[in-house]
Amino acid sequence: MLVFALIIAACSDSKHGIKVKGSDTEVNLAVKLAEHFYEQEPDFSVSISGGGSGLGIASLMNGQADIANSSRPLNPEEDSLFKARGIKLHTVVFAEDATAIIVHHDFPLDSLDVPTLAKAMSGELNNWSSIIGTNLPITIYGRQSNSGTHSFVRKKLGVNFSREAKEMNGNAQIMEGVRMDRSGIGYVGAGYILDGGDDGSVKVLRITERVGEPAISPLDKKAITEGRYFFQRPLFQFIPQSSWEKVQPFIAFEQSAVGQELIRSSGYYTVEAK
């Protein structure tokens, strides 16, 4: 379940040991922030692991994390469980992200409209023939249901994903699947692509909400800052009250000029930029 792990400094002092778990969308960015944070605060140890937003949130409930990185808000069931257990949470929105819809490099179209995309992802359309004129079955590469990105895309499209969709562990696996499959379509964090996750062997589609409207790329910074891209969202960090004092130096670093520049240089968008 853990796609990345970083442990900075073998610090045995629990007052300076921070455990961060959760969203694979945020994990590369979290690693980079933790590395630079340690350069300024060498007395701290920071461990970063992925596995999905749901895993990070569950880890908070079980006392196994100090910060849950999440690419979605709490769902009603999670909110009720935290309240039932008397766990007070602090919520930090530390960046914004756009989800990129990707296809094979040779896919003949550069854009799709949301209604067509919804039909493809739900399985209502199972062949590209009516869209591109070529008899080619549609293969969907997505995430498991505990992924915040899975939940986000499904809700934005207003559909359930096809039962035939392949469930992958993270951005890298989805990219590799689509890269090798002419029929493939999937979704990954735009920050992952901008931070070097793409070698040009996949195509990032521009998305239009309705036929006839301008199609917008998730890599268009101006469009994102203006809130015009269909699949853009805030990135959350949930922190229990019991860990709040300990993690404040790390949160302060994220909000500093250095932290904000790291967020931007990693392909994400700072909250202030919107």
How would you portray this structure in words?
This protein is α/β, with parallel strands linked by helices. The chain has two domains: 5-96 and 234-273, D-Maltodextrin-Binding Protein, domain 2, CATH 3.40.190; 98-225, D-Maltodextrin-Binding Protein, domain 2. 38% of the residues lie in helices and 25% in strands. It has helices at 24-40, 53-61, 76-84, 114-122, 129-132, 148-157, 171-179, 190-197, 221-225, 241-255, 257-265; strands at residues 5-8, 17-22, 45-51, 67-70, 89-104, 111-113, 139-143, 166-168, 184-189, 202-204, 206-208, 232-240. Strands 1, 2, 3, 4, 5, 7, 8, 9, 10 and 12 form a ten-stranded mixed sheet that branches. Helix 6 (148-157) links the parallel strand 7 (139-143) and strand 8. The model is unreliable at 1-12 (pLDDT under 50).
